[in-house]
Amino acid sequence: MFAYYFQLGLRSLRRNPALTALMVMAIGFGVAASMTTYAVFRAVSGNPIPGKSAQLFTPLVDNWGPQQNLQGEPPDALDYVDAMALMRAQQAKRQTLLYQVQMSVLPGGDRDLPVSANGYAVYGDFFPMFDVPFQYGSGWSAQDDEARSSDVVISAQLNQKLFGGVNSVGRTVNFSGHDYRVVGVTRPWDPKPRFFDLFNTTGFKDASDFYMPFTRAQDLQMRSNGGNSCRGSLTFTGWEDYRQSNCVWITAWVELDSAAAVARYRRFLEGYASDQQKAGRFAWSPNVRLYDVMQWLDVRRVVPPESRISLLVALGFFAICLVNTIGLLLAKFLRRAGEIGVRRALGASRREIYAQYLIEAGTVGLAGGVLGLLLTAAGVAGVGVLFPPQIAKLAQLDMSLVGLTLLVAIIATVLAAFYPAWRAARVQPAWQLKSN
Amino acid sequence: MSLQIKPILVALRRHKAGTLLIAVQIALTLAIVCNALFIIHQRLATLSERSGVDEANVFVIANQWAVDWTTQQIDAQVRADMLALRQLPGVRNAAPSTGYPLQGGGWDNFITMTPDQIKPTTDSAVYMGDEHLLDTLGLRLVAGRNFHSDEVLVMGTQQALVPPQVIVSKALAHRLFPDGSALGKSFYAMAASPSTIIGIVDPLHRQGASPWDKLHAGQSLIWPARPDDARGVFYIVRAKPGQLAAAMREAPKALYAQSRLRIIDPKDGIQDYAQIRHRVFDSDRGMAILMGIISAVLLAITAAGIVGLTSFWVGQRRKQIGIRRALGATRGDILGYFLTENLLIGIGGVLAGVVLAFGINLWMVSQFETARLSLAYVASGVVLLLLLGQGAVLAPAVRASHVSPVEATRSV
After folding, report:
1. Is B305–A238 a contact, with Cβ atoms under 8 angstroms apart?
2. Residue of A111, A149, A302, B162 with fewest CB within 10 Å of its CB?
3. Test the B interface: residue of A76, A180, A317 with most B CBs within 10 Å
C-alpha cells in the first residue's frame, strides 16, 4: 500500500505544478537555511576533547579585587605570581601553565627570508594532559622543566618545512637566534575550538607551529604574543617588574580525575586566595573559579553571536515555511474533496485516507529535502560571507548533514500535514457525491 | 460603499484554519523581518563608521623582528627604515605605530582624572607613534598642535612609558571635558604621572569594533613614542595620491634592502585600508547580506502562501460569488470583499506580530547585547506586510470578481 500511495503522491505533485513548486521551495529554502547555519553552529559549539573535557579544569584567581575585576568575576587569566604559586603547589594529577609566543625561523634550505612561527610556552604535562598525538619522539619531562632546557616540540607542518618531514628528533633548530633541540614532532593536532587558549584567541586560529618549555621562555624574557590585561597605574620598567605586576597573561590548566579531586583542588584554591589575603597581597576575600572545558567555552562565549543569531533566524524562517506549507497542503488536499468522497464511498476507511495524504506530504518533503540539500551545499560553500575563514572552513557538508537535511525535511513536512490530512479524512462522502 | 465587515467576519468563522494560518504566517514574518531589518540597519551603520584615516592612500606593514635585538638596536633600525620609506618616490610620509584604526583589536587604557582614582572615568584606545603619525594617517587636527620631534620618546619592550604630552580624539576630549576646555588639561591613563592634551584630532577610530569599543566609540589617544618592541612594529605608510599600488610594491623592497632580519608575512603582512576594512567588518557585512536574503525570501514565501490559500478560497466559493453577482453585487463589490477580508486577517496578524517582534528583540537584547528595536521599524514592517497581503490577494480577488453570475445556476 505504501508504494501505491507513494505513487499517487508523486502523481498528485504533478497535478498542481505551481502549488507543488511553491511548497517544495518553501521546504527547500527553510531546511537549507536551517542546515547551513546549523553546520556552522555544530562546528563551533562542539566538544574539542570529548574524552577528557570533564577532567580538565582552568583555575582563576581574582587578583584585581571587587573594585577593578570584571563585574565580580576574576580576570580571564592569571598574573605571573599566582600562576607560579599554583604550578609549584602541584595539587593536581597534572598541571601546566601556558602563554602564546612568537619566534622566527631564520633562513636555511630553500628559504632566503626568515618566516614567523607561532607557538606556546608550556610545561611537560601539557602533552599527556591534552592527548597530543606524536609522530616522532615525545614531550619533555618534569626534570627538563626544572632544568629549563632548550627543548622544543614542533608540529608536523613545521617539521615538513624545516626537515622535509623526516624524523628530526635530536636535531637542532634555531628560533629567533637561539638553538633548540627537537624532542618530539606532533601529528597534525589542532582542537577546535582551541579550548586551552581562550584568553588569547576566540577559539579559532591557524594551528600552532611549536611548543617550548615555559621555564626556558621565562629565562629568555619572552613576552606573551597574545593578550595582556592590567589594572591600576602601570609602573614597570623591565621584565622583573612586569612579572610582579597585576597584569594577567598566563593560562593554567589542571587535570583532576575524580569529584573528590575537584573538591580538594577547589579547597586548595580558596585556601591559596585566603593566604594571599592574610599576607596582605589581596585586600579582599577569596574569589576563585575552577571551570571545566565546556564551562570555559561557555564563559568565554566561544560560539560567535553571528552563529547563534543566524541559526535562530533560520529556524524561525523554517517555522514560517512550515506554517505556509500547512496552509498550502490544506488547500491542495481539500481541493480534492470530491475525489476523497468517491474513495470513501467505495469503501476506503478514514485511516486509509489519512495514510495516503500523509505519504503524499512525505513525497513533498522528500522533494523539498532534495532541493534543500542542493541549497545547503551552496550555503555551506558560501558561509565565508558571514564567518572568518578559520570558522567558515569548519562547516562541511558530510554524510550526517546530508542525512539530517533529508530527514528533517520529510519529518517536518509530515508533521505539517497532520492537520490537513485529518481534515481530508473527515470529508463526508455524501456531501461530495451529492453535488456531482 | 458596501464594504460590510460583519458578513466577512461571519464567513471567516467558517474558515478558521486557513484564517489562522495566514494570520500566524503574517505575525511570524513581521516579527522576523522587523528584527532582521533592524540588524541590517545596525550592521550597515557600523560598516560606514569613519576611521579618520586617509583610507584611499594609506597602507600598513606588519613588521616582525627576526632576531632578539636590544631596544637600542631596534630603535636604530626603525629610524633607518623610516628614512628609507619616506624617501620612496611614491610615498608622502611614513610612521611607526603600535597599532592602527580598524586593526581589529589592540591596546587600550583606562582613563582617570586623578592618579588614585580607582573607578575609571572612561577607556581609550592607545596609539604610540612619532611626529609623522598624524600626517601619515591623514588625521584632521581640529585644535592645538602636533608633537615636536624632541618630544618623541623611545619605548622598549617591557616599559610602561608615560609621555607628558598627548593628542586625543575629539570624542575622548568631549568625554573627559564636556565643556570643550580639553586643550591644555591633563588626565591619567593607567599611569602615576599625567599626560597633558596638546592637540585634538577628529575623528580617530579605535583599533577594534567590538561591543567594548562601541561602548567607548571614537575615544582614542596618541602618545609621542617610537615603539621599539622586540616583538615587532606596524609601519603606517601614506602614498602620494594615485600611487598606492606602486608604493605597496616598493615599500617591502626598501625595507629588505635595509635589513633582511625581519618578517613581513607574504600573505597578509601588507594591507591597504580596503583590505583592513573588509577584514574587520567582514561578519557585519555578511550578517547584513544574510538577513537581507532571508527577509526577501520570507516575504516572497509569505506572499506566495497568501496567493495559494486565497486562490483556494476563491475556487471554493465560486458558487457563492455567482449568487452574490446574480443578486446584484458588482465586480467591485467582490474585489472589495476579498481585499477587506485579507486586510482584516492582516491586521490580526500584524497585531500579534508586533508583540512577537518586541518579544524577540527583548530576548536578543538580553542574550546578545543588541540595541532596542525602534518603533519606526515595526511601523514600517506593519505597513510593508499589510501592503504585501493586499498585493498578494489582488490576483485571486480579480479572478473572483470575474466569476460570472451564471455560475450560480450551474451544477445545482
Report:
1. no
2. A111
3. A317
